[in-house]
Amino acid sequence: MQRQAIRNLRNPYSKKTKSPIHLLLGLSIILTLFLSIIYFLATNAFLPLEPIDTDISRPISKSLSNSNASLQIAYAISLTSCSKTPSLVDGAAILAHSIHLSSSRTSTSNSKYDYKLYAIVHKTAISCKSTLETLGYEILEVDIPVPVSEIQGDFLRERVPKNGCCGALEFIKLWAYTLVDHPFVVHLDLDTMVLKPMDELFDAAIEGDTTKMKDSIMWPREHHDTTRNTEKSINAFFTRDYNMRPARRGPVGVQGGFIVLRPSMQTFREFQDIIRKGDYTSNRGWGGKGFGPFYGAMTFQGIIPYYYDALKPGTAVELNRCLYNTMGDNPRDKKTVKDVVSGNCQDGREDCEDCRERNIGEIFTAHFTLCQKPWQCLHHNQDMLQHRLCRKLFHEWYRIRANFEKPSVAEDVVVGEGGYQPEHFRGFCKASGAKGYIPLRFD
pLDDT digits over 230-269, tens only? Predict the structure, then answer.
């Protein structure tokens, strides 16, 4: 658009001599403007302003629960090394598709929550960036939240690099707390899958009420009482790894493959402060309160329960590990022989549920640990408690892969060309074992 030329207009009051009428008219206009300003200040300027809430850790208001922003959940994975194998490519792809199938983008899921995928990638693994972007993940290139050299506690500083699976690199999972554009973040390991929408968790956290979650809570009678929490804030859901509990006493570490958290920069900074202080002792763990020693206690598996159990009690809920992050593990400390369980319950109870007997239709998420990885083409053919659930979980993973490759394919159609138990593995295995797996191909 062309700019219009500005015309210089003659000011009628530019003459030295002005008529009385013009003077009176000008004064009346000035007086009117002055009185208008006075009126505005009297009626508006001194009214109390609505305070701005700058506390990003505050629970989400129920009034926001119907907004589009509050309905998009962040799903994050973490990567500390780059190896473009099925454990990365196929794991990330099928996990992402399982999330898609359980979201509002799939009408049959009946979920009201949308999703966005993130990959928290350590700077040494950034060469996998393009692969993950192809699969739909937004990349967050990070370093560990606190350099090991800055940890003040000698014991932690010297030993954390070799603790657990990944040492101090495991702390990069904490960057999930910085995804503050979303109401909640679900952090999952690559060897997991989502089988059902997790709306009940997000709804419970928004409403500050877990009474509708039925048997999804691990300790329904002993779990935190929301009436004691004045803010009614539920800031995390997780499962615990009782198999790693030393001598069935003391605090139990979380299972690091699954956590649902409320993002908060304040919480992230608090974790940084905890790590930097390094208050971890050899026999008593974090803060000298028993959160360690156990596998991964110096990193994610130990610092999470220390934060929510000791420092912020009543703000997290332990989920039923038969429904969330299920692994098909033996709940007792002795072997199961011919479907007969024996020994003491790993979680300390007199009687404990055997998750291996759960109907797969009730499971929300699964974690391939004891069952081994789906891309290893293990048949789990033996008719025993240890294998039946694993076989069903493998079948579900391959169902999701088949749908990923051919979204409209029927449940009983063999998609791939592999001839090893094609109805079970959907044509994606040529033989038993990792060498028999047919990886995803991206043309």
Answer: 455 899 999 999 988 766 677 899 999 999 999 999 999 9
Q: Which helix (H) or strand (E) holds 237?
A: strand 236-240
- Dihedral sign (CA 227, 230, 235, 238): negative
Q: Is domain 67-318 annotated with CATH 3.90.550?
A: yes
For residues 201 and 319, give the distance between their C-alpha atoms in angstroms, rounded to a whole number.
10
Q: For residue 315, give the nearest of 192, 431, 204 by alpha carbon.
A: 204
Q: Name the burial class of residue 197, with classes exposed (0-12), middle (13-18) and buried (19+) by CB atoms within 10 angstroms of its CB.
A: buried
Separation between Cα atoms, residue 104 and residue 196, nearest integer Å: 12
Gyration radius of the chain's alpha carbons:
29
Residues linked to residue 345 through DSSP beta bridges, in sequence order: 332
Q: How many CB atoms lie within 10 A of CB 438?
A: 18
Q: Which contacts qualify for 392-397: CB closer than 8 Å, 24 or more apart? A: 392/360, 393/328, 393/360, 393/366, 393/368, 394/424, 394/425, 395/424, 396/193, 396/195, 396/360, 396/366, 397/94, 397/193, 397/368
CA angle 390, 118, 175 (to 5 degrees): 100
Residues 380, 421: Cα–Cα separation, whole Å? 11
pLDDT at 309 over 60: yes
Residue 78 DSSP code: E
Q: Give the residue extent of every domain in the chain.
A: 67-318, 374-436
